[in-house]
Design goal:
Elements (H helix, E strand, L loop, with lengths): L7 H10 L3 H14 L45 E9 L2 E9 L11 E7 L6 H8 L1 H8 L2 E6 L23 H16 L2 E11 L1 H12 L6 E5 L10 H10 L14 E6 L8 H13 L4 E8 L5 E8 L5 E8 L6 E2 L8 E2 L5 H9 L6
Parallel strand pairs: 3-4, 3-5, 5-6, 6-7, 7-10, 11-12
Antiparallel strand pairs: 1-2, 2-4, 8-9, 9-10
């Protein structure tokens, strides 16, 4: 007489691996009944610890749709450091995205997004490390997007801020970056009224261009060691502006977004006059308003001069920080990243503070 348990465990394991948990349970129960061993139904066999079952099982009563999780059923989610690629109109960008953690409970409200544009020779990981923006964003509940300029678009991985085809709304890099920003905002429940863009050097120049080209996407801009939109339309003009500053004080058309500008007065790569021109243009667009200038020192001892333009109700809409003795580097950044100046004014913290005080109407 054949032993009824001869093939039981092999067949039950096969069914479990196929995601047929109910069938495996029935097989065990039927074999026990045929062997005259009644009693409580045995649980289905468990797969070995190293076995991966690529299937999701859910028991749903006949005719009843699966329940959709309500706001109170939102699980906790850890922080994420994602890697992605985005294609748009024949161009492709890689990017990194920082998503802060969420607590269990009601679904979180839509969260802000900061787009960070690296400088020449940098990439997303280097820029995130150097600016320490992810650590600040974790505490504030802010997503941070780091697009990467591919080397085939620029040999030094610079954003092409100095070319006419990359200074307009519906063309080139501004169009590509705005499309990527919209995609991330739609996929990650971003508050559309609180999207900001900041950058260093060439990335700062492109951030100012995006402020001009897409005021319907961004609520405020941050420029560190960058140049105003419109100072150049080719490489020779760009080099001249970097060396000596804009040819005229009103090199770029003023844009109406709130702006925070950082520049070192010892910057020998991008002349500090560019930061002053950018801040002046932003202030004119805001109606100049009430300006106040203060001088101080960062905890590390670096001195700075800060000029703030306020609205009649006292709200800061343009800030110009001149960091004394700072070269071409991100103020207050981490030594683990390139083009940083640890110990100075914390540009990342000041930009994030400024951004979160503004919403796009």
């Amino acid at each position: 007489m054949k032993n009824p348990f001869t093939d039981l465990f092999g067949e039950a394991t096969r069914l479990t691996q196929g995601g047929q948990l109910h069938a495996a349970t029935e097989l065990i129960q039927r074999t026990l009944r045929e062997a005259g061993l009644g009693g409580p139904a045995a649980p289905p066999p468990q797969p070995p610890d190293d076995m991966v079952i690529d299937a999701e099982s859910r028991v749903v009563p006949d005719g009843t749709p699966p329940p959709s999780p309500g706001p109170s059923a939102s699980p906790a989610a850890p922080e994420q450091w994602l890697r992605g690629s985005f294609a748009h109109r024949g161009r492709t960008l890689d990017y990194r995205l920082y998503v802060p953690p969420t607590a269990a409970g009601p679904a979180p409200a839509p969260r802000p997004l900061v787009v960070m544009l690296h400088g020449c020779t940098q990439d997303a990981q280097d820029f995130a490390t150097g600016t320490r923006m992810n650590a600040l964003a974790r505490e504030a509940g802010v997503l941070v997007l780091y697009p990467e300029q591919p080397q085939q678009a620029n040999a030094h991985r610079c954003w092409n801020w100095f070319k006419a085809q990359h200074q307009r709304r519906d063309r080139g890099e501004p169009d590509l970056l705005a499309a990527l920003t919209r995609k991330i905002a739609a996929e990650h429940a971003v508050d559309a009224s609180r999207i900001y863009v900041a950058g260093l050097s060439a990335g700062g120049a492109m951030a100012d261009i995006l402020g001009h080209s897409h005021p319907d996407v961004f609520a405020a801009i941050g420029v560190h060691s960058g140049l105003p939109q419109g100072v150049a339309s080719d490489l020779p003009a760009a080099l001249a502006a970097m060396r000596s500053g804009p040819a005229t004080p009103a090199a770029g058309k003023p844009q109406g977004l709130p702006a925070i500008v950082f520049h070192g007065d010892a910057d020998s790569t991008v002349h500090p006059a560019n930061g002053a021109a950018l801040a002046a243009a932003a202030a004119r667009a805001q109606g100049d308003g009430q300006a106040e200038t203060t001088r101080g020192r960062a905890p590390g001892g670096q001195s700075f001069t800060r000029t703030v333009h306020r609205t009649p109700d006292g709200r800061s809409v343009v800030e110009h920080w001149v960091v004394h003795g700072l070269g071409h580097a991100w103020s207050g950044g981490s030594a683990q990243g390139s083009h940083t100046a640890p110990g100075g004014v914390d540009a990342s913290a000041e930009m994030l503070r400024f951004f979160l005080s503004h919403r796009r109407p």
